[in-house]
Amino acid sequence: MEFPYNDLDQCQGCQACASACPKQTELWLINDDGKAVFKYENKDECVQCQACVGACPVGAIQFKAYLQFCVIGQS
């Protein structure tokens, strides 16, 4: 499964991606200069519509595959 990945070095902190997201999966903390300093994506809610990718004016968002691991038989 693929989910949005945001390159914070390119990000301008405009939050266009958050406005475009139909599920509001993106939460931001913005510093005093208006720059994005942290982003958390609620991956369980993402419908992979990629509206955030199209909304980003600087191309800072890409969809990438995330692997999930689990260890069986360990507590």
TrEMBL record:
The keyword Cell wall biogenesis/degradation does not apply. Residues 2-33, 36-66 form the 4Fe-4S ferredoxin-type domain. Keywords: 4Fe-4S, Iron, Iron-sulfur, Metal-binding. GO terms for molecular function: 4 iron, 4 sulfur cluster binding; metal ion binding. Coiled coil: none annotated. This is 4Fe-4S ferredoxin-type domain-containing protein.
